[in-house]
């Protein structure tokens, strides 16, 4: 898929990686609303990943688990890398975060332990 990322999706990814999960959700939601299928489905998965991290940051394991399951519906169909986004790596990092929260019994996740949305440029992840 050679589609260029929506500018608000790029901004949402930047915000996500900075740990500004609420703001990332807002930007990604706008990109989702303004984009055609199928890329809008990817943006929906990304915005829900931001909500998962927001719930974890706030210590809401139950909410994180609920949204995580929903986010998989939108992230699982995509290949390892699509539109320059390392979707497979994000799925694995999200799973690791959820497992760590389940194991610890607490959902409070330090920003440094949150997943990142990595972009590929010229074949090299950033």
Question: Biggest sheet: strands, sense, closure?
Answer: 2 strands, antiparallel
CATH superfamily: TTHA0068-like
Spatial arrangement of strands, main beta sheet: 1-2
CATH class: Mainly Alpha
Which key phrases capture this entry?
mainly alpha, Hyaluronidase domain-like, 5 helices, globular, disordered C terminus, 61% helix
Describe the fold and architecture.
The longest helix is centred in the middle third of the chain and has 19 residues, at 39-57. The chain has one domain: Hyaluronidase domain-like. It has helices at 7-17, 21-34, 39-57, 61-75, 87-104, and strands at residues 120-121, 124-125. With 126 residues, the protein is mainly alpha-helical. The chain is globular. Helix 1 (7-17) packs parallel to helix 3. The model is unreliable at 122-126 (pLDDT under 50). Helices cover 61% and strands 3% of the residues. The chain has a two-stranded antiparallel sheet with strand order 1-2. Strand 1 (120-121) and strand 2 (124-125) form a beta hairpin. It contains five helices and two strands.
Briefly characterize the structure:
The protein is mainly α.
Topology:
Elements: H1 7-17, H2 21-34, H3 39-57, H4 61-75, H5 87-104, E1 120-121, E2 124-125
Antiparallel strand pairs: 1-2
Helix pairs in contact: 1-2, 1-3, 2-3, 3-4, 4-5
């Amino acid at each position: 898929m050679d589609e260029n990322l929506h500018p608000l999706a790029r901004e949402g990814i930047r915000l996500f990686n900075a740990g500004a999960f609420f703001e990332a959700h807002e930007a990604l939601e706008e990109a989702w609303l303004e984009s055609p299928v199928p890329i809008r489905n990817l943006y929906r998965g990304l915005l829900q990943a931001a909500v998962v991290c927001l719930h974890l940051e706030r210590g809401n394991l139950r909410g994180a688990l609920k949204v995580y399951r929903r986010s998989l519906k939108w992230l699982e169909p995509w290949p390892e890398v699509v539109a320059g986004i390392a979707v497979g790596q994000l799925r694995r990092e999200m799973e690791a975060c959820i497992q760590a929260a389940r194991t610890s019994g607490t959902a409070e996740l330090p920003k440094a332990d949150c997943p990142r949305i990595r972009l590929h440029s010229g074949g090299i992840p950033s």
